[in-house]
Design a protein that fits this description.
This protein has 170 residues and is an all-alpha fold. It is built from three helices and no strands. Helix 2 packs antiparallel against helix 3.
Length: 170
């Protein structure tokens, strides 16, 4: 068996150390962390907006091209149907062009639906990021207020510790 003997007076005679965490440093670290998250969110949003703008321009160009093709088919069909001496072959060509026209209209319609869905997704993401940014700003504001209160308490506690432990502070 091993016994450990110690003198209590040795431990009680040691001055008590008060460890005060630097609340300003903690608040600054949290603020910096929130600022980094905010910056990353803004960079991500900028990239997505740029990408969306590029996609939007590309889709607009494609839509313009499809609309020109649709107008061309409509004009060709109108010319065939206005012809007084139309024959069976011409009517067959008109029928094929009408089917092609319907397909192009369906393509444009489905493309429009997918663009609307993408627009809704982007709007939702933008709203989510706006909400997150607002929350981060509120957190930073709350931390600043907490930091101010903690700094006042630390200063007051330091003053009282000084008075209690050192007679020369009187």
């Amino acid at each position: 068996m091993v016994y450990h003997l110690y003198d209590k007076s040795q431990y009680s005679a040691q001055p008590k150390e008060i460890s005060i965490k630097d609340s300003a440093a903690i608040a600054d670290a949290v603020r910096d962390s929130l600022a980094k998250v905010y910056s990353a969110a803004m960079v991500d949003l900028d990239i997505r907006l740029d990408s969306s703008q590029t996609n939007s321009d590309f889709l607009k160009d494609q839509l313009d091209e499809k609309l020109k093709e649709i107008d061309k088919l409509k004009n060709e069909i109108a010319i065939i149907l206005k012809n007084k001496t139309v024959n069976k072959d011409d009517l067959g060509v008109a029928r094929k062009k009408i089917i092609e026209l319907q397909q192009k209209v369906d393509e444009v319609s489905s493309r429009n639906i997918s663009v609307e869905e993408e627009k809704n997704k982007l709007s939702s993401k933008l709203q989510q990021l706006t909400t997150e940014i607002t929350g981060l700003q509120q957190n930073v504001s709350q931390l600043a207020d907490d930091n101010k209160g903690l700094t006042e308490k630390i200063n007051l506690a330091s003053f009282f510790c000084c008075i209690r432990n050192k007679p020369e502070c009187y």
